[in-house]
User: Which sequence fits this backbone?
């Protein structure tokens, strides 16, 4: 899977303002900003992203996905940009 394909899956499943992915085709590192994360705990945010991938985690198309999830407000005030 390419970063473009993975970005497209996430972006089609969630309204994202920013989605950046790096990885080697199996192990991915993502930074995702979405208003949908407002009021959600970290685990809930991650579950929302995993839901956009369907069964790709179980079939090993995406072996690992490490992510940082932000609301737009958190992203605007984050030093991580």
Assistant:
């Amino acid at each position: 899977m390419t970063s473009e394909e993975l970005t497209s899956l996430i972006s089609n499943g969630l309204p994202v303002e920013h989605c950046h992915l790096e990885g080697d085709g199996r192990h991915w590192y993502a930074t995702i900003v979405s208003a949908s994360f407002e009021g959600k705990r970290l685990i809930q945010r991650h579950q929302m992203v995993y839901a956009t991938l369907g069964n790709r985690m179980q079939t090993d198309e995406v072996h690992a996905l490490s992510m940082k999830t932000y609301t737009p407000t958190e992203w605007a005030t984050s030093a991580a940009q």
